[in-house]
């Protein structure tokens, strides 16, 4: 399925992939990454939607006065990007059970960012097929700026969903 939606100044085109199943996953595998390039406009829009109006996210002079090199991306926006990567991957029959992350590095607007994930464990829990992952955002230098973990529940081919 092809989805086209307006995002800031450009259109973001996302192709929804086929449903992933528990049997398709193996420990150590990387899941499809998500490329992002947050803009200053997106940061202002996020501030309005989230209520996080701390000036370091949109006012360059204020950010410089706080000892930063300039405006920085909201941590919760980066967490939302991680959530987007996960929900894109698990498809409509999957469930995002848990997502945690820590803000360990600063990302700046108008710079590429890649959101990544790697399967660390898979197991059955009360007839649910669970997958644990390490997840993170990565800056252009390859540094993990927002590391975290997630647990998802995937459908199984051997146990159709009711």
Describe this structure in words.
With 162 residues, the chain is an alpha+beta fold. It has a domain of 96 residues: Thiol Ester Dehydrase, Chain A, CATH 3.10.129. 20% of the residues lie in helices and 33% in strands. The protein contains three helices and seven strands. The strands form two sheets. A five-stranded antiparallel beta sheet has the order 3-5-6-7-4. β1 and β2 form a beta hairpin. It is elongated, with a radius of gyration of 17 Å. It starts with a strand and ends in an 8-residue tail after the last strand. The mean pLDDT is 90.
Give the biggest beta sheet. Answer: 5 strands, antiparallel
Instruction: Using the CA coordinates, give the radius of gyration.
Output: 17 Å
How far is the first residue's CA from the last residue's CA? 23 Å
In the CATH hierarchy, the architecture of the domain at 23-37 and 74-154 is Roll
- Specify the number of helices: 3
Q: Given this structure, which CATH class of the domain at 23-37 and 74-154 is correct?
A: Alpha Beta
The succession of helices and strands, N to C, reads EEEHHHEEEE
CATH topology of the domain at 23-37 and 74-154: Thiol Ester Dehydrase, Chain A
Average of the residue pLDDT scores: 90
Strand content: 25-35%
- DSSP summary, beta strand count: 7
Secondary structural class? alpha+beta
Low-confidence stretches: none
The side-by-side strand order for the widest beta sheet comes to 3-5-6-7-4
- Per the principal axes of the C-alpha atoms, what is the gross shape? elongated
């Amino acid at each position: 399925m092809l989805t086209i939606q307006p995002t800031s100044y450009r259109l973001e085109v996302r192709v929804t992939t086929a449903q992933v199943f528990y049997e398709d996953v193996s420990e150590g595998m990387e899941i499809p990454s998500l490329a992002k390039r947050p803009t200053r406009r997106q940061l202002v829009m996020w501030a309005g939607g989230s209520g996080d109006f701390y000036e370091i996210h949109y006012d360059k002079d204020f950010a410089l006065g706080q000892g930063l090199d300039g405006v920085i991306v909201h941590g919760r926006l980066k967490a939302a990007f991680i959530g987007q990567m996960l929900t894109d991957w698990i498809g409509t029959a999957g469930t995002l059970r848990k997502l945690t992350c820590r803000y360990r590095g600063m990302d700046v607007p108008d710079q590429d960012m890649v959101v990544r994930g790697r399967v660390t464990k898979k197991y059955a829990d009360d007839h649910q097929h669970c997958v644990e992952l390490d997840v993170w955002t990565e800056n252009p230098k390859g540094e993990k700026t927002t590391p975290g973990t997630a647990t998802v529940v995937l459908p199984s081919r051997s146990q159709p969903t009711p």
